Amino acid sequence: MSGATPITEADIARLVDRFYARVRHDPALGPVFHAAIGKDAGDWSAHLEKLRRFWSAVMLRSGAYHGDPFTAHLRLPGLTPDLFEQWLALFDATCRDSFPPETALAFSERAHRIARSLRMGLFERLPARRA
Q: Between vectors from CA 28 to CA 26 and to CA 30, what angle results, nearest 5°?
């Protein structure tokens, strides 16, 4: 992102808050997230803080996140490969609505790489080797 305004913690918080507000109202994604997190503001407050730390670690290399996204997604009932596409489309739109093009692209590229890795690990596992 040469020449672009650096991404800040405030940018990350704004993106996470805007994006997950949209997720909660999305007819496909909302029910999956509500089943996993809950519907009340308290449940979401803790989750949003965790997501802000995650994106801080991803975008700023802050070391703020120490969780395991793969295991968290492995336990989600109702998660399908198609939902990754819906999540990415909504994320990309939120990035475009929230940032200049170069910043939006930086977030989107990272999200697509992470989603590809999660999707492969969750749904495209290789068969176990025979001994």
A: 50
Which structure tokens are listed for 119? Answer: 């999707």
How many CB atoms are closer than 10 A to CB 91?
Answer: 21
SS3 38: coil
pLDDT in tens, 69-127: 887 877 777 888 899 999 999 999 999 999 999 999 999 999 999 999 999 888 886 66
- Count the Cβ atoms, other than its own, within 10 Å of residue 67: 12
112, exposed or middle or buried, with CB in 10 Å at 0-12, 13-18, 19+?
A: middle
Quote the pTM value. Answer: 0.87
Residue among 61, 64, 45, 43 nearest 7 (CA): 61
Task: Show the tokens assigned to 125.
Answer: 């596992």
